[in-house]
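Hey, I'm writing a tutorial for new members on how sequence and structure tokens pair up, and I'd like a real worked example in the thread rather than a made-up one. If someone can provide the structure for the chain below, I'll link this post from the tutorial.
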Amino acid sequence: MIAMNSSLQGTALPVHRQVNHLPPDSIVFGRTAHMHALRTRMERAAALDMPILLDGESGTGKDIIARILHRQSPWVAGVFVKARCSSIPDSFDTLLESSSDVLTAEPQSTRHRLESSCYGTLFLDEISESSAALQTKLLRLLQEGQFCRINLKRCKLNLRLVCATNRGLEEAAERGTFRRDLLYRINVVTMRVPPLRERIVDVPDLANYFVDFLSNIYQCKVQRPSRRLLQSLLSYSWPGNIRELENLMKRYVLFNCEEWICEELAGGPREMIAQELSQPGALSLKEITRKAIRDLERDAILKVLQANKWNRKRAACVLNISYRALLYKLKETGMTTSAPASADSLTTRRAASTASM
């Protein structure tokens, strides 16, 4: 457990204090031996007063695992504080201040409890992305068990540390981009969160859960995926893991068009990549990847615009990007920024936008 001195002042960072909604354990851990072993390891480690490292690809649900660890720990009555290391400045003063600043919207009694040495969990996501200066200060924090504020105001805050990484920290230590002494401090207990392709049998349950959950959020009446769609989901490799599946089900719920989803799973960048590989001469992996992402974005934008009758502001909201960002992407891909004069098919518009690039 870390004892830190902090105050309730500072600038805002992407730090969260919300553990209200968690999927049922049957959905989180599914049916595979990999996930059942992870669950057993979690139950044993939850009460231990030592750092935990969650290792797994991006989108595998490490955030959910960290929240379940907090929920199962003796410190569940305390706070759950999440911070993305890629967005944290080098100053640990700012980290600790903003970690507490998430409580400014809470009642004063909650702030008082935080100042009065309450327990909780500090979840550092993307620990491999932390800067050298931040690593040094985090190591000092772990070694000394406390953090000294410049204004010398002492507010003891006890937090169990949970870190997550989607990159091999051992390799990063070999390259010199991650401190080996810090690695030894944070990986006392290491848990591997398997990718979705290693638990593909869980895809139908996950898909049905997301459809039910998102239908309730968006107040949409959508049937659960058909056998045909489930077969397509089971045949896909899921490079984006559970996050990719959730986003796909979100589009399914919002557009209620199974044909689009099956088409997206069956086609897309894989056909383009196969064509690229068949060409003679040297290959550029960066160029192939860039084209695949560009084609995916273009198709997604076209479908969303069509579904929303070319209302760009509504489409930007559905895509979860700003209106200005949508206009930029429309211009970047050569697509018109307004509804076409005639009702062109998706295939025709895709061909037109590709030809203009």
